[in-house]
């Protein structure tokens, strides 16, 4: 008699197995992705499967479930164990006849997690840190091997984990833990993509509490953390704090100067940023109702200066040509060495590789997230922050540069500028006929001319204007004829708007007079326009420089990344000439792509190998020494541009 045919869905993998073969064993033989933490002991419930085709009662004879029991009795017991109706433990259910077995996403180690970013792509789960349940042989006077050696044997035999590095902190607790668990323990093991596995923890018995990871986007202005479940990929909480290094200098170069001019300055900045990461880890864990000690891994993305300061490397070389990095490789180390003392004491940290002296691990993370290197279409990815990281490429070739846009796009250096917090004007429209503005503020769904706006914003009031608000305001002013192509604000007579009032030797445009309500007057000044012009010229010049290198005049896709990119309207960006001319429908927003890249690196260890390889083949373009950068910068000062045609705006 031929053995029953077993087909696994959704992989389609199939094979014939003798009656009585456990489903988990069949899955392993065929290379089917079926999870297991307890090694088939019927404890962890990770191996749940259901028969997609075939008679349920014929499906499995189980040891733990007792197939001789009536079906509904099995169902009742399963429900108690948290199994969904119709599900069976793959390690206990055995093959009885031909069957198609469905492996639900929750039972796959490499399950797909839908990203929260607008692109809605997926992350395949393949975390570097996982738990493994093992039973080890008891000590035997006639076979005098140490407890650790027998634990190593068990991990190798049951899970194929060899050459395990065991820290002293785990070794000192090992004997008591093994005995407390009656020789059954749960091991937390970090298995990097490129090196020796580390035993992070050993706990008595079977442990199934959440295993957490922290993805960190360390920016020069803000630091964002995303707490992730390393088993499901779910984001359990996110938090952001200001980078306390701001007191040493607003932008990167002033921080490098601080390190150059002040003995011990770099160490000071290292200390404060490490304290900030520690505070962030505690905050995000508390917000999610989790204990920080459950965090066993962190993946960190940042620009090169932040990278060096976090690692305790003096960034002085990054402030002068040829902008040499101490290392461009990824860095994997104990998180405790970065001052993360509240998370698990043996937690690991992974810093993505840097691309060049001005193009850091944050740009690498954007590449990991947006994958321009995997596209046929020529894709321009712009991550806007205090520095803009710009990547251009496709399958054939990828180039990257960084451009010093300054903090104007984040609302700094703007007369009424502020962070995007409740009360900040974030959207602006100006009627081209009446020249009257209407706006929306963060935290309120109504426009300023909607009835109820005053009531809705009574708590926060209108407090200032954030980065996206000032960009829209300037673009709308240009479209309404309040600004000429050189960026000069017209007078009331020239524009026909009494809102354009003299302001020193120039003019400013009154957006909101909140003085009656006790709030500020919010105007767009000539200085604000100049700050935006400088920032957008730097951005555009960087993109053009990469296009020159590649010998192209147009791109097929533009992706605006960064928290700020998520809020910019493509039309307004194009009116200002921030981005090259392209069909508006080809411009998309990717949200916080660097943060998403950090999350991908955290949840999928293969992605670490992939980005390390990709970074090695990215061509770095240095804006600071490229003569054409200055030409592009000067021409880009006009709105939208002095020479380049912006045909899409005329459509
Ligand atoms: Fe753990 Fe089946 S493998 S319950």
Automatic annotation (TrEMBL):
<dbReference type="InterPro" id="IPR027980">
    <property type="entry name" value="RACo_C"/>
</dbReference>
<protein>
    <submittedName>
        <fullName>Uncharacterized 2Fe-2 and 4Fe-4S clusters-containing protein, contains DUF4445 domain</fullName>
    </submittedName>
</protein>
<dbReference type="InterPro" id="IPR041414">
    <property type="entry name" value="Raco-like_middle"/>
</dbReference>
<dbReference type="Pfam" id="PF17651">
    <property type="entry name" value="Raco_middle"/>
</dbReference>
<dbReference type="Pfam" id="PF17650">
    <property type="entry name" value="RACo_linker"/>
</dbReference>
<dbReference type="InterPro" id="IPR001041">
    <property type="entry name" value="2Fe-2S_ferredoxin-type"/>
</dbReference>
<feature type="domain" description="2Fe-2S ferredoxin-type">
    <location>
        <begin position="4"/>
        <end position="107"/>
    </location>
</feature>
<dbReference type="InterPro" id="IPR012675">
    <property type="entry name" value="Beta-grasp_dom_sf"/>
</dbReference>
<dbReference type="Pfam" id="PF14574">
    <property type="entry name" value="RACo_C_ter"/>
</dbReference>
<dbReference type="InterPro" id="IPR042259">
    <property type="entry name" value="Raco-like_middle_sf"/>
</dbReference>
<dbReference type="InterPro" id="IPR040506">
    <property type="entry name" value="RACo_linker"/>
</dbReference>
<dbReference type="InterPro" id="IPR052911">
    <property type="entry name" value="Corrinoid_activation_enz"/>
</dbReference>
<dbReference type="InterPro" id="IPR036010">
    <property type="entry name" value="2Fe-2S_ferredoxin-like_sf"/>
</dbReference>
<dbReference type="GO" id="GO:0051536">
    <property type="term" value="F:iron-sulfur cluster binding"/>
</dbReference>
């Amino acid at each position: 008699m031929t053995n029953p045919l077993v087909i696994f869905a959704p992989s389609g993998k199939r094979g014939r197995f003798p009656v009585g073969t456990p489903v988990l064993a069949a899955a392993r033989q065929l290379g089917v992705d079926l999870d297991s933490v307890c090694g088939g002991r019927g404890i962890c419930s990770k191996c749940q499967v259901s028969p997609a085709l075939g008679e349920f009662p014929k499906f499995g004879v189980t040891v733990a479930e007792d197939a001789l029991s009536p079906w509904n009795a099995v169902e009742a017991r399963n429900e108690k164990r948290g199994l969904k109706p119709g599900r069976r433990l793959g390690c206990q259910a055995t093959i009885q006849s031909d069957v198609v077995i469905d492996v639900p996403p929750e039972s796959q180690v490499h399950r797909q997690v839908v990203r929260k970013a607008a692109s809605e792509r997926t992350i395949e789960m393949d975390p570097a840190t996982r738990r493994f349940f093992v039973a080890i042989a008891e000590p035997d006077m006639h076979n005098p091997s140490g407890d650790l050696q027998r634990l190593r044997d068990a991990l190798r035999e049951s899970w194929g984990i060899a050459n395990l590095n065991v820290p002293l902190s785990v070794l000192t607790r090992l004997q008591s833990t093994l005995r407390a668990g009656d020789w059954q323990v749960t091991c937390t093991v970090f298995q990097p993509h490129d090196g020796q596995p580390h035993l992070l923890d050993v706990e008595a018995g079977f442990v199934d509490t959440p295993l957490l990871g922290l993805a960190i986007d360390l920016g020069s202005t803000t630091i964002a953390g995303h707490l992730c479940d390393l088993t499901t990929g779910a984001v359990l909480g996110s938090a952001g704090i200001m980078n306390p290094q701001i007191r040493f200098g607003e932008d990167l170069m002033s921080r490098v100067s601080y390190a150059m001019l002040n003995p011990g300055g770099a160490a000071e900045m290292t200390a404060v940023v490490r304290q900030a990461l520690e505070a962030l880890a505690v905050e995000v864990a508390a917000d999610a109702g989790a204990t920080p000690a459950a965090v066993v891994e962190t993946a960190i993305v940042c620009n090169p200066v932040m990278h060096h300061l976090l690692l305790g490397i003096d960034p002085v070389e990054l402030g002068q040509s040829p902008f040499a990095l101490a290392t461009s490789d990824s860095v994997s180390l104990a998180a405790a060495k970065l001052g993360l003392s509240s998370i698990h004491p043996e937690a690991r940290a992974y810093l993505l590789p840097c691309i060049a002296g001005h193009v850091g691990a944050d740009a690498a993370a954007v590449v990991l997230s947006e994958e321009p290197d995997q596209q046929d279409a020529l894709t321009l990815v712009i991550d806007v922050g205090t520095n803009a990281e710009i990547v251009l490429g496709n399958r054939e070739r990828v180039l990257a540069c960084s451009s010093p846009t300054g903090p104007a796009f984040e609302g700094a250096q703007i007369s009424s500028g502020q962070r995007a917090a409740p009360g900040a004007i974030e959207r602006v429209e100006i009627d081209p006929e009446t020249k009257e503005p209407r706006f929306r503020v963060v935290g309120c769904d109504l426009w300023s001319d909607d009835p109820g706006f005053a009531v809705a914003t009574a708590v926060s009031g209108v407090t200032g204007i954030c980065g996206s608000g000032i960009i829209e305001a300037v673009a709308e002013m240009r479209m309404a004829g309040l600004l000429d192509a050189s960026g000069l604000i017209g007078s009331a007579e020239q524009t026909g708007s009494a809102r354009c009032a003299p302001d020193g030797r120039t003019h400013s445009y009154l957006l909101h007079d909140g003085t009656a309500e006790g709030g500020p007057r919010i105007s767009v000044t000539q200085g604000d326009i100049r700050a935006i012009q400088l920032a957008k010229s730097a951005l555009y010049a960087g993109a053009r420089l990469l296009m020159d290198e590649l010998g192209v005049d147009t791109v097929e896709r533009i992706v605006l990344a960064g928290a700020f990119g998520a809020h910019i309207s493509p039309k307004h960006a194009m009116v200002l000439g921030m981005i090259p001319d392209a069909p508006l429908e080809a411009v998309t927003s990717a949200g916080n792509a660097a943060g998403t890249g950090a999350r991908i690196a955290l949840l999928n260890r293969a992605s670490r190998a992939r980005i390390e390889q990709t970074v090695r083949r990215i061509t770095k373009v240095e804006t600071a020494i490229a003569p054409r950068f200055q030409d592009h910068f000067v021409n880009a000062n006009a709105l939208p541009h002095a020479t380049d045609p912006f045909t899409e705006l005329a459509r």
